[in-house]
């Protein structure tokens, strides 16, 4: 009798073990299918023509373009200020003309104007991470660059009003741009697979260096052709 009971118990235990193994195999298969569908998810599944580019790479490219714009807005004043505070000599058709500097700022005031951006920039570095986790990195990233762009277009008006207005505007622009790095990391933590995360973050932030490299010479050309305000309307 005892042997029969023991045999029944062993049979039940074996049956339960087989059921658990089968369930584990089903869970593993479902998880693998989910990973595969996520890794190979592309714009084609959303009706986009860019079917050959995975969606996560499109997000990375857009982030890179955002950093490009952000750094173009940041460094354009460095070039424009040369024409704002120095006499500019122009040559054309055998004529030489000299434009008198519009602003008489000493080097100390110039440094204050250029550095005022970072007074605001430093204040939103840590809060930007909390805001990105609460409201989403995508909205914060785009909103910061949009606000900085609007403030940049107002730079000529604020500058001609008073230098205090310019400093206040640059501080606000720094506050707006202070959230872009933390919000970009929030976006990449959702879109980038673990094995591609470092590559995608590096690609997205490379837009900062490309934007700086592009803006410096182009700003000089714009100043020469159209005057220093054109820099803030173009970028």
TrEMBL record:
InterPro entries: MFS (IPR011701), MFS_dom (IPR020846), MFS_Na/Anion_cotransporter (IPR050382), MFS_trans_sf (IPR036259). The chain crosses the membrane at residues 61-85, 112-132, 139-157, 201-223. Residues 1-29 are annotated as: Disordered. Gene3D superfamilies: MFS general substrate transporter like domains. It is a multi-pass membrane protein. The keyword Cell membrane applies. This is Sialin-like isoform X3. Its main location: membrane. One of its GO terms (molecular function) is transmembrane transporter activity. Keywords: Cell membrane, Glycoprotein, Membrane, Transmembrane, Transmembrane helix. It is found in: Cell membrane. Residues 1-18 have a biased composition (Basic and acidic residues). Pfam families: MFS_1 (PF07690).
């Amino acid at each position: 009798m005892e042997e029969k009971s023991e045999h029944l118990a062993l049979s039940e235990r074996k049956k339960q073990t087989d059921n658990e193994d089968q369930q584990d195999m089903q869970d593993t298969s479902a998880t693998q299918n989910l990973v595969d569908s996520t890794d190979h998810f592309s714009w084609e599944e959303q009706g986009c023509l860019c079917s050959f580019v995975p969606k996560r790479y499109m997000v990375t490219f857009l982030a890179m373009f955002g950093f490009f714009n952000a750094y173009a807005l940041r460094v354009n004043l460095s070039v424009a200020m040369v024409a704002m505070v120095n006499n500019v000599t122009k040559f054309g058709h055998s004529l030489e003309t000299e434009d008198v500097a519009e602003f008489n700022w000493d080097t100390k005031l110039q440094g204050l104007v250029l550095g005022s951006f970072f007074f605001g920039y430093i204040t939103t570095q840590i809060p930007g991470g909390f805001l990105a986790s609460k409201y989403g990195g995508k909205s914060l990233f785009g909103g910061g660059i949009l606000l900085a762009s609007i403030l940049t277009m107002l730079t000529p008006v604020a500058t001609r009003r008073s230098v205090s207005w310019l400093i206040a505007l640059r501080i606000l622009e720094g506050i707006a741009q202070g959230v872009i790095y933390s919000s970009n990391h929030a976006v990449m933590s959702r879109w980038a697979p673990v094995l591609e995360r470092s590559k995608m973050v590096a690609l997205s932030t490379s837009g900062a260096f490309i934007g700086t490299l592009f803006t410096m010479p182009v700003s000089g050309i714009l100043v020469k052709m159209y005057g220093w305000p054109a820099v803030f309307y173009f970028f």
